[in-house]
Amino acid sequence: MSGKDIEINLSYSNGYIKLIHKTIKKFINVDEANYQSELKRTLNEIGVIFDFDRIYIYYFSKDPSFMQIDCQWNKEGIRPKRDNKEEEVVYALPWLIRAIKNGEYVAINDVKELPPEAIFEAESFYAEGIKASIIIPLKNENGLIGFVGYESLTRTITWEDNQIQILKEVSMSFAHTRNKIEKLKAYEATVKGQAILLDNSQSQIWALSNVTSYETVNEAHAEFFGKRKSDIEYQDLYDVYDIDTANKLAKVNWKLFQKNEPAEIELEIKNSKGENRLLQIKSKPQRDAADNIKYLICTAEDITEQRKTETELYKAKELAEAANIAKSQFLANMSHEIRTPLNGIFGFLQLLELTQLSSEQREFIREAKSASDILLHIINDILDFSKIEAKKLAMEKIKFNLRTTIEDAVSLLAPKAAEKNLEICTLINEGVPEEVIGDPSRLRQILNNLISNAVKFTKKGEISVIVDCLEDNNGIANLNFEVKDTGIGIRREHMDTIFQSFSQADASTTRKYGGTGLGLAISNELVKMMGGVISVDSIYGQGSTFKFNIKLKVTKRAADYKFIFEKLNDINILIVDDNDNNRKSVSSYFQGTKLNVIEAKDGNSAITAILSNSNTKNKISIAVIDSQMTDMSGYELATALKTIPSTKEVKLILLTPVNQKVDSEILKEYGFAAYLAKPVRKHDLLDSIALVMGLKKEYKEEQIIIKNTVKDCLKPRILLVEDNKMNRKIVINMLKTRSMTCDVAVNGSEALKALSEKEYDIVFMDCQMPVMDGYECTSKIRLIEGDKKHTTIIAMTANAMEGDSEKCIEAGMDYYISKPINFEIMFNMIEENTKERKSMDNYNSIIDNNIDNLVRETGLDKEDAREILEDYIKAMPDLFSGISESIDKRDFNKLAKVTHELKGSSGTLRIVSIYELAIKLEEAAKKQELDECISLFIQIKDLCQ
């Protein structure tokens, strides 16, 4: 190398070093204001030193698929890289962008040497006349942000390593400066935005560096105290405010710092106008690296007006609740006051009806009872509606028999339907569960409302109640009910309003048929509370169908009656009725049995069916006959069958209207084995057939089944606790009509005394009495009885408000009857709770037969053994009553429990005969073998004769 070449290289080297030093120093202090001017000057210096024709800098946009030129330089006489600063598509140069993303630079000595894949770049470079170029990426901590291009348009260049290194270092200072400026701009924008938000916020905001020192505040906080921000920032509380204000703020700040976590506190303090204002202050600590509180950030809302409003609302709520309580108390008192005389009216009317009266007098009594019923219905509707309106109506969740509840509702309205010669039938389809959890009384109320309306608005024809189970998922049954009538129907324009309060189809309806217009509104709300919807389909002049669905949890599927009739093979039942729905209803009762059903639509068809099948496998064994048919009555059909030799063996069961009196002796003369009142209950019909066919041992050939009568053999021991003279007189006289008597107590204290001297089957307990009320009296009775015994106590009260029944049950009462008393319900309760009793003399054989064995096995004295056995036989009537009741109700769980008690006591006393039968009875109860249970119970009772 010649001396001249060495001199030139040294000159270049010195120029490079000065360039790097000057550029780095310059860009340390560059800011946004002089960035572009200094950048252009530096690009010019680089261009001169390296003899470039053009230099440019591109940065990627927010959308990284676009880029824009930021700064450019070009030698005089050379056109610029871009005439305008516009966004360009990044992937117009795909090879180049990929290369700078993946490497530290891209050096192009000669455009002709571009690789084949750089077709777009070659086209662009040729178009611009570029001979050589080096592109260096610009990066920050997040990655690639742009690139710098150095170009020659006049010659090719062989890029040397030292040149490339210098250009990389210079380019790095560009990226660093750009990054610094962008961050500063972002920070300033953030600070400016925060300042705008803070200073325009209605909430007060401030930061504390310690308990008494401000760091910063916003305008709202300064204005509250009549200050400027500059008066408060970085100042001490005691240098800014009066001593009282400073003390209050310092005290609050201390509490917030002490909590050492996000906190909330209320502070009452004067503002700049001297007004007392209530501030709700929230604080959040900001911590340093050592987890110490650096600042306490506080915000405050002025809640003075809000608190005033809350106070006013609270007072209004208290007044409303007080008014609601007063309203409830008024309704409860009115309910009591109205029901007490109503009880007298109903009672005396029923007693009067039992005396010798003329037909005219009986008509007057009938009208008076009808008017009283309407009045009671109105009172009940108003009470229910007020409870719904006050959101005080609660739903019970108890286990109940669904079929029984439905049949009870239908039976209640059957007499009224019979008075109008209307047929009423129930069809509970297969798949409907037997036992569910819900509120049986409210379901019954819905059905009563709908059936009552159907009876009221139907002059002739029939009413049917249809129940179906739409689905059953996860133990929840979706039950669908339909109440269908052939009544007057509803006009289309009125169908949208009938479920609203105090609404009926039209004004004439109220005048003609009466009612409050609340029944359907209440039913609508009750159905909603049970998770369902109620609707109606109707054709004016032809009838209506009310539909509703509810959801109930299933506890027992449809009852299985196969075991009752499993001893009978190919038994055929003939259903004779001229009403299609009645036949369908009765036929449905045999689903799940082994009995075959044949239907006949009238008497002549029945005779034909019996005769035609007499010598076939379809021979009729039992005929269930309606008493009233178009071609002949049930009695006439029975007479005809008696004259035919081949039909004499057919057992006959008569179905009669509920209001038709029946003479059992006459029925026997006609050849009927049993009779049932319509609408027929499934259990009653199947029980009757079981008795008639000899599947139940209690049946005797001459026996006629009569439902709903108190057994004459029972002599119930009743205590009536009632302070009202009129009510006592009514109950006493009503009991006399069934040959019953009762003891009387006029208050709770007298009742306690009576119970201490005598045992009772049932106590009818009034709730509101002087000296001691029914609730207190019942609690004391239960306390005295303990676990030794349990006397049945039934509440009788004129109250019918929310919580009354619960209050009675909580006090220890077993059942609840509201006044005016439904005496049929009362007599049913007496029958169900009257214990079968025998004198101790009847059980002497137990003592005589077992005392020696007990003495031998235990070593007891004979007198002690006798005393123990006497205690045993004293308990026998209650145990036998429990077993009998469990069998009647098919309550196998209770049957097993009571039998287990009998087994335990018999085994302990070495009464082996009863002990062994009790073991078998308990096993049969667990297997739900009804016939076996009946047989074993009869054997046990025989041992006690």
UniProtKB/TrEMBL annotation:
Residue intervals of the PAC domain: 263-315
UniProt xrefs under SUPFAM superfamilies: ATPase domain of HSP90 chaperone/DNA topoisomerase II/histidine kinase, CheY-like, GAF domain-like, Histidine-containing phosphotransfer domain, HPT domain, Homodimeric domain of signal transducing histidine kinase, PYP-like sensor domain (PAS domain)
The keyword Kinase appears for this protein: yes
Pfam family, one: HisKA
Phosphohistidine modified-residue sites: H900
PROSITE patterns (alphabetical): HIS_KIN, HPT, PAC, RESPONSE_REGULATORY
Family annotation (Gene3D superfamilies): 1.10.287.130, 3.30.450.40, 3.40.50.2300, Histidine kinase-like ATPase, C-terminal domain (3.30.565.10), HPT domain (1.20.120.160), PAS domain (3.30.450.20)
PANTHER family with a match to the protein in the record: HISTIDINE KINASE, HYBRID SIGNAL TRANSDUCTION HISTIDINE KINASE J
General function of this protein: May play the central regulatory role in sporulation. It may be an element of the effector pathway responsible for the activation of sporulation genes in response to nutritional stress. Spo0A may act in concert with spo0H (a sigma factor) to control the expression of some genes that are critical to the sporulation process.
Name this polypeptide is given: Stage 0 sporulation protein A homolog
Taxon lineage: Bacteria, Bacillati, Bacillota, Clostridia, Eubacteriales
